[in-house]
Write a structure and sequence with these properties.
It is a single chain. By secondary structure, the chain is an alpha+beta fold. The protein contains 4 helices and 6 strands.
């Protein structure tokens, strides 16, 4: 093999390897910051009772479920996102009291394995009440 051919072969192998890694990655995306309007949900009730498991009539139950540690979600423009807390903390610390009402949520969009999640940074409620993550979480010193 000539030196030029060997270089071309090496470049082609690298491109194929990089393409294979990208395909194996499955299009997972650790996106940037997003700001969405919608409703904080408790996913347990929403998934089991989609007709009644959201909205102002369900707010008290949803907030109670989220406070008890059931998974929280966010409904915006017909799409449901799983909510992740800051660092390795529960999202309940940031979304507490906001379920069942229109809110503006800001956080980091993460898509992986066909699921979409938002690592919550702040929630602005209809009443003007704002909850945000400001102090460091306990445990790990990094976000995934």
């Amino acid at each position: 093999m000539t030196r030029a051919r060997a270089s071309v072969s090496l470049i082609a192998a690298f491109v194929l390897l990089a393409t294979g890694v990208a395909v194996a990655h499955g299009g997972d995306d650790h996106g940037g910051e997003v700001t969405l309007t919608g409703e904080v949900l408790d996913l347990h009730c929403y998934m089991l009772h989609p007709e009644t498991g959201h909205g102002p009539d369900h707010a008290k139950c949803a907030n109670s479920c989220i406070d008890r540690g059931l998974p929280a979600g966010f409904l915006s423009d017909g799409k449901v996102y799983v909510l992740l807390g800051p660092g390795h903390d529960s999202p309940a610390k940031v979304v507490a009291g906001h379920a069942g009402q229109p809110v503006t949520l800001t956080g980091k969009l993460v898509e992986h394995g066909g699921m979409a999640a938002i690592q919550v940074k702040s929630v602005d409620g209809e009443s003007g009440a704002k909850t945000s993550h400001t102090k460091p979480h306990s445990g790990h010193d990094h976000d995934h």
